[in-house]
Specification:
single chain; about 550 residues; alpha+beta; Lambda Exonuclease, Chain A; 2 domains; 7-stranded mixed β-sheet; two-stranded antiparallel ribbon; 17 helices; about 10% strand; UCP028503; Restrct_endonuc-II-like
């Protein structure tokens, strides 16, 4: 924090505030201040003109400063350290502390005790004692939370003592309430985003047409209607009255745009009713003087009818234009928000989390003037833009993260636009799980490929070994057959002679049948003949039905 050597309340301090976004203005910027609208704050920053406090407001300010000074000793006893008024800045943000310790760990903020604060502290007292200290600050009205949060953002305070009190004129304390406020990171982020949007709106600010608070005006006053009757009409300005009345009624504005127009129209409606009543009174006056004066009565009835129609028509126009203008302002807010979202989508590449259309109609509900409706819609639009900007910022960070970590794995993330809308923790989990699964799948495929190649190589080697054995066994059989002696030739027949006892020669022995080939030789021969694998041949042999062979 940069400490500025200024005394609060001086002209130098006021000049300093004009160049910074101040903690005391943060509630109005966030649209939570009951004392100033966001539109008013924009105008003040844009023009540099801040309204002078009324005498009543100045009295309240003075009383607040008096009670703040009286409460300081109590605040120091609660904190256990001395407090010093400080003005500090952090970037474009500024805060004026009622009190700050030398370590800057503890700050002090005082407000005049009022009914809203009494109700808030009554709610705080309902919290369980063991949780009261941590939660008390979150139960204070939001405008005080916002101010203290910005003070904490600037001073990096660990806590802020919030005191509210009332003191007698003699300096005796009449009532006091206090609690600690602890920094809220979520609220700090909203305040930071809120000032960013405020700066954008300030740069684009165009001063609206200044309008004095509308005070309804009636049309030109009609002349007094004078009728005197003594058995006959003796004097009357009725015809001149009628001509003038028709001219006045015809000149009434029916194109209502501003608050002034509406105020005029509403008062004119009442005025038309009064004209009708005056005409009735004139008619009754004439009728009381004479039983019948047709011309007078017809003319009076004619003027009265014009006044009645004008009153009814203008009343309808007032109601209709109010609805039209209100709907136009709401429609303008919706269109502006939709255009802002489209521009953010262009920045995120189409990735977006649907936040829903803000309830502009709800914001305008109960507002009676055009300016109050416009301010309510503008404030809601600004807050909605802040929320949308925060969402877009998170999505842009996710897009950058995805671009960095999925390089080389883009094919795994065809849904990257949708993934960019996730919370960063969920996104990290999805990315890591997909990439890890892909790597595991690729490793498994590589292992399966290596195993298949190994089996094929092994089968090839076994096949070659079987062929080699079969060739060797075949060669051995051929050699064995070649080495066996040839059978002796049969003796030639001799001429018949006298029988004699001759010893019979034993017949020559047949060559021994070849030995049975080994199982491996049989399998190798079948493998070679059918060009099959050993596994296939063994399977065939197992399936053979020898009973039909």
């Amino acid at each position: 924090m940069n400490i500025v050597n200024l005394v609060q309340g001086t002209q130098e301090w006021l000049a300093h505030r004009a160049n910074f976004f101040n903690a005391s203005d943060a509630p109005a910027m966030m649209g939570v201040s009951p004392y100033k609208t966001r539109s008013d704050l924009l105008k003040e920053y844009a023009t540099g003109i801040r309204p002078e406090p009324s005498p009543m407001q100045q009295d309240l300010y003075d009383e607040g400063h008096r009670c703040e000074a009286l409460y300081r000793t109590i605040a120091e006893s609660i904190i256990g350290d001395e407090l010093y008024p400080v003005v500090g800045t952090e970037g474009k943000l500024s805060a004026s502390f009622d009190g700050l310790t030398m370590s800057e760990d503890d700050a002090y903020e005082h407000k005049l005790l009022n009914e809203d604060l009494r109700k808030a502290f009554d709610d705080i007292n309902t919290v369980a004692p063991e949780h009261r200290d941590a939660q008390a600050g979150r139960l204070l009205p939001m405008l005080y939370q916002v101010q203290m949060e910005q003070q904490s953002m600037i001073g990096k305070c660990k806590r802020v003592l919030f005191g509210a009190s009332r003191w007698s004129r003699a300096g005796e304390m009449e009532e006091e309430r206090h609690c600690f406020y602890y920094p809220n990171p979520d609220l700090a982020a909203k305040i930071e985003a809120g000032w960013e949007q405020f700066a954008k709106d300030l740069a684009a600010y165009e001063a609206p047409v200044v309008e004095v608070k509308p005070e309804g005006r009636t049309p030109e006053t009609l002349p007094a209607l004078r009728i005197e009757v003594r058995g006959q009409v003796t004097a009357s300005n009725l015809h001149a009255f009628r001509e003038h009345a028709v001219e006045v009624f015809g000149g009434i504005n029916r194109d209502l745009q501003t608050d002034q127009d509406f105020a005029d129209a509403e008062k004119t409606v009442k005025w038309c009713g009064e004209v009708e009543a005056r005409l009735d009174a004139a008619k009754q006056h004439a009728q009381s003087q004479m039983e019948t004066v047709d011309e007078i009565f017809r003319t009076i009835d004619d003027i009265k009818e014009i006044a009645r129609r004008t009153r009814l028509d203008l009343g309808k126009i007032v109601d209709q234009r109010k609805v039209e203008i209100k709907e136009g302002i709401i429609r303008g807010g919706r269109n502006a928000y939709a255009a802002h979202v489209q521009s953010l989508k262009a920045e995120t590449g189409g990735a977006w989390v649907e936040l829903g259309m803000p309830d502009f109609a709800g914001a305008a509900k109960g507002k009676r003037s055009v300016s109050s409706i416009q301010d309510a819609v503008d404030t809601m639009l600004a807050n909605a833009k802040i929320e949308a900007d925060a969402s877009a910022k998170r999505i842009r960070a996710n897009v950058v993260f995805l671009d960095r970590v999925i390089e080389g794995y883009e094919f795994l993330f065809a849904d990257r636009v949708g993934l960019a809308t996730k919370q960063i923790e969920d996104l990290r989990l999805v990315v890591s799980s997909r990439i890890d699964k892909h790597k595991a799948d690729e490793l498994r495929k590589e292992e399966e490929q290596r195993e298949r190649i190994r089996r094929e190589e092994q089968a090839k080697l076994e096949h070659e070994a079987a062929e080699k054995r079969a060739a060797e066994e075949k060669a051995a059989r051929v050699a064995e057959q070649a080495a066996a002696p040839a059978p002796a030739p049969a003796p030639a027949p001799t001429p018949a002679a006298r029988p004699a006892t001759v010893a019979r020669q034993a017949p020559a022995r047949r060559p021994a049948p070849p030995t049975r080939p080994t199982d491996a030789e049989i399998i190798a021969a079948l493998v070679s003949h059918f060009e099959a694998t050993e596994v296939q041949v063994v399977g065939w042999l197992c399936e053979m039905d020898f009973s039909v062979a």
